[in-house]
Write a structure and sequence with these properties.
By secondary structure, this protein is mainly beta. Helices cover about 5% and strands about 45% of the residues. A hairpin with a 5-residue loop joins β2 (about 15-20) and β3.
């Protein structure tokens, strides 16, 4: 299964990885990177709810 179709890293600006999902739609993972630290990570593309759930406070306080 081929997933990564395009990858772009730049010294400045928008970095992204584009994936093709099982449905054939494209999904872009966008991010910034500075001094080996990734930030401003977000997804762009078609969005559908495939699962919902609850995250209790003790899950992130460990």
């Amino acid at each position: 299964m081929e997933a990564v179709t395009f990858f772009k890293m730049s010294g400045s600006g928008k970095n992204f990885i584009i994936l093709v999902t099982r449905s054939g739609e494209s999904l872009a993972i966008c991010f910034s990177k500075k001094n080996h630290v990734y930030s401003n990570i977000h997804l762009e593309g078609d969005a559908r709810t495939i699962y919902t759930g609850k995250l209790w406070q003790d899950a992130w306080e460990s």
